[in-house]
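hi got a favour to ask and not much time before my train. below you get a single protein, a line of residues and a line of whole numbers that encode the local backbone shape. could you go over both lines and see whether the tokens make sense for that sequence. a few lines back from you is plenty, here it is:
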Amino acid sequence: MANKILLEVVTPDKLLLSKEVEVVVATSIDGEFAVLYGHVPFLASLAVGEMRFKDGGNTEYAAIAGGFAEVTGTKVTVLAEAAELAREIDVNRAERAAERARERIEKAKTEGRDYVKAQAALHRAMLRIRMADKAKL
């Protein structure tokens, strides 16, 4: 594992990914951070956002829906509320989720429903669509 860091992404349902990579870049609630082999240990609260990782010149993407990242000098463990690898995202499903969220937002404006939850659902759906688009590049 010389000059590589082990990346593990875990959700409540499964171990999504366990792979040695050169660099991990994720979005915390304080902004984006990058981790290389030998990084100083830290913990970060993750925002709903993009995670990317690079190995051998190939960059892969994932949509992360909040959680925590634990960084050591040799490993990054992401404990995510939900996560999907970009290459596995069903774009049609994400677009339907975005449309449902937009409808909920409109209803929230007129019926007093939970606007914040609807906005968060739209944000997650749009993230998934963006990550799926990046996987196609």
User: Anything to note?
Assistant: The longest strand covers residues 42-55.
